[in-house]
Amino acid sequence: RPYLGMTTYYVCEGKKYPVVFSTMIDYKVKNYGLFGDEGRGFSFSSISRKSAGGGSFHYFTNGKFIKSDEKYTGQSY
Q1: Which of 27, 23, 20 lies closest to 59 in space, CA to CA?
Q2: Is the residue at 42 inside a domain?
Q3: Could you read off the pLDDT of 11-55 as tens digits, one per residue?
Q4: How many Cα atoms occupy the beta-carbon half-sphere of 42 within 13 Å?
Q5: Distance between CA atoms of 23 and 77, rounded to whole angstroms?
Q6: Whole-number Å distance between alpha carbons of 9 and 45
Q7: Coil, helix or strand at residue 43
Q8: Which positions ≥6 away from 5 have C-beta within 8 Å?
Q9: Which residues are registered as beta bridge partners of 26?
């Protein structure tokens, strides 16, 4: 499932323009075994979400996205 999130923007004449946005793709992983507890009950499978890696920066310059050599390491802007 793809996501697109805008983390920073500026406002000009009442309109929001993105400055920094991030994309993410996640997927579900199903594990089989014995899971649960006394309150929830027990089940034989568990579903968790994982993210597809990436970590690239792209800059919007002259109407085009240009990939940078920088790598994203979890910092926040």
Answers
A1: 20
A2: yes
A3: 888 887 767 666 677 888 999 998 887 777 888 998 888 877 666
A4: 4
A5: 14
A6: 41
A7: strand
A8: 21, 22, 23, 24
A9: 51
- Of 23, 22, 19, 24, nearest in space to 8 by CA: 19
Work out how many domains the chain is built from and give that number.
1
At 50, the amino acid letter reads K
Within 1-77, strands assigned E span 2-12, 15-37, 41-51, 56-61, 64-71
Boundaries of domain holding 31: 2-71
| Rounded Cα gap, residues 42 and 63, in angstroms | 54
DSSP state of 40: T
In whole angstroms, what is the distance from residue 49 CA to residue 2 CA?
A: 13
